[in-house]
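Task: sequence in, structure out. Protein: Glycerol-3-phosphate 1-O-acyltransferase.
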Amino acid sequence: MIEHSGDAPAPVRHAAQPDSVVALIDAATKVERELVGAWLAQGGIAAEFGADAPITQLDLDAEAVAERLAGRRDNPLVVPVRVLWLPPERDGVRRVTFADLALLSNPRKPHRFAQRRLVGRAPDRHLVLTGAPALLSELRANNPEATALLRTGSAEPFARAVVRAAIVALERAERNVIGDRYKVPRLVTEEILDSPEFLRRLELIADQTRTRPQEVYRRAERALNELVAAQSRLVSDLFTQAMRPVHASTWKVDTDISGLADLRALNRRHPLVFLPSHRSYVDAFVLGDVLAHNDFPPNHVIGGANLSFWPLGPIARRTGTVFIRRSFGDDEVYKAVVEEYFGYLLAKRFNLEWYFEGGRTRTGKLRPPRYGLLNYLAAAVRSNRIDDVMLVPVSITYERLNELGAIATEQSGGKKKPEGLAWMARYIRSQQHSAGHVYVRFGAALSARERLAAHGDPLTARPITIPLHTTTHPSAETAPPRTDAPDTELAEQERKAVQRLAFEVAVGINRVTPITVNALATLALLGVHERALTLGEVRAVLDPVLGYLERRDLPRGEIDALRAEQSLAVVLEQLSLARVVTVYRGGLEPVYSIEPGAHLEAAFYRNSAVHWFINRAILELSILAAVESGAADQLSVGWEEAYRLRDLLKFEFFFPERAEFAEQLTAEMLLVDPDWYSHTRADTRGSEIQDKLTASGFMMAHRVLRSFLDAQLVVAERLAARDPALEVDRKELIDECVAVGKQMLLQQRLHSPESVSTELFTSALKFADNHGLLAPVARDSAQRRAELARARAEFAARLRALGARISRAALLDPSNRTDPELA
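Result:
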């Protein structure tokens, strides 16, 4: 019963035979008291712990412990005891179902009449359970501050600590019987509010904000009650069953469980934080089901308060969902509560889950990470509140998604519909169509402490101060309040370390994301300009790509279905039913093309795998740039172009450091020209390499990069048209880019509707800001205004040149050689 931060079993036997035993009995009914009493009378404690000593029975209640245990001068062995009730066994599993509720009783907590009946008719449905015991002296040593108060006559804090320790011990014992899936926290709010460190922080807030301490404490208690996920085993069982049809009837879940045994072993020592890619609202249900089937404890899922509407919110909170406000404003109490609760969950080794992209992807590829919650995690590590935490990258990839229409509408400037009961009903109704596979893959776990240290984090805790006047309005993704404001160097080291850790997680997700049949089918059809392909032509596009994937040994789904025309036709027909592909059957044979108006949906599928082809696309454009230059040293020209493209795309994709990027690009070159290393710098001619590139049978630049660079072109031209002295309103500029982008599309200055995307425009603005193209210049500085105007114009000119080069790359692709009008 000594409290541990994790689940390592506490010792159950003591070297010295105790003189007496105190049984702390957690019983709610007369039946439970009778069962415990009979077990004690039959020598249950002596048989289980070898403690053959007089037994005192005591209710597991703080008042009883304060009166009859806290002040004892001997050293009894304290043993928590309760009756565990079990659901009936079905197919080897004991889990509550909706059928059980027909008896108007929770099988895990049956009412007294049901208990009496079960004792006689189903003796296998209950057992007397004991938690790991502890000597009274051990309990005092484990709670020094509460023990110190005993000398002043205040026994209540120590009694509450004993009750909490007993409940935790009983919960652990229960999980040994029912499995880790049912690991749930108890008395969280009470324990946090009893924490001396947290109370000192609240006093500091009260002092620095000149607020009455009682008011600060009351606000903290209210925030905790709003925040803390009060998990219920009954609700968890029923909610899982109720929500499973939302995805189970739609997708066939394909999970690689090879690494889960190692994760379970890690989980015995450290908390796990699952960081999945976020493509659908059902992600949490899919991942939760996978983990439940493999006996992982339920994750505390950190989500936005926008999903806390009735009835989903109250139910989800009972299954471990933590709803955090999207904006904290200047509420220092709420910030303190979030940080404390986050640290508490990690310290108690409850597994967490959040979607570190900050929301669902609108484009299909991984979004840039948000750092707020990772900052809280890093703060817990720096303070040594936890020894370590393991971050688990998780890829969740769908062959098809039935919610893509709404996502495409948002990308093209439409408003996101607010979540609510009507929205939920529509969403569930939309999931009633089969959508192929959903692939769940787990990347290699990352040690937070090890990786933060490797990235230069000093891992030194600094005291917290509360700003007297808050002028900013941080959101849930804002870093925890920091202290030591003058120490900007340390803060910068911490910031960079967290960013690099987030980058590693993103790379870990991409590394295990499989290539799906729909990703390749849309890759083929999006690569031809307003032209339909026959089945044979689609196969001709895909065959060399499939060979390329095999040579690289990339993770993939059931893409062998694309090799035979019959199964390829089935894939395209399924995309047709999803209104992504259109099929014309009125001629000699069916021809396939992207459904008009469905380019954003098609791009979503392609982009789930686009990161696997980025280096190939950059290599192609670099080779073309070298050939066009006519320079004596075309190799240097090619490398310079590759590094410029890497910089241009750094807000869209996760590129490694320069040296590793060079190694990856060299590996791509060796796939094109296996004799690359045999060339000398002098005899390397770009035209010969271009011929080998063409001979490979496919080109990727126009299929992979065009939409991103076209979106950047729209932003660059709108910036170039602006007065450098004017402030840039980002939302207003993005709205303008949507409107002008549609015009450019009608004028055929853009290749595809997928380029007209608020998400892509937002990334382009980040790049422009990073290169100093957004900040206005004062009107009285004519020279600087001219320089900014020139830099914006050069940015637009650079993108127009890249667009022309991509068109030339497209003409080298076999699928486009019959279309001279492509450029």
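The chain has five domains: 21-178, 223-464+474-512, 517-608, 612-696, 704-816.
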